[in-house]
Amino acid sequence: MGSYVEKARENHVKKKVEEALRSKMKAKALMECDQYVSKYAQCATGRTFSVVWTCRKQAKELNTCLHQFTNDNVLEEMKREYMIQEEGKVSASAI
What we know:
The chain is mainly alpha-helical.
């Protein structure tokens, strides 16, 4: 049973690391979807309540784009990459 606990600890990504990865994921999504962010911002300029129905199309396009880059699969892949990097650092320092 001890080895299972050790494995779980090794594969666990600490909360602060996960928060940093989420932040990185969101920043990348905003960069990738910049054209949709601009379209939405342009539509929303000068509007208050009407932005909800006037810019519905732009908001949907933006959300669709953002979801491609901010979902659980993307986060899990980033966690795997992080763990591989950390294992590489540990291996390199052990030599």
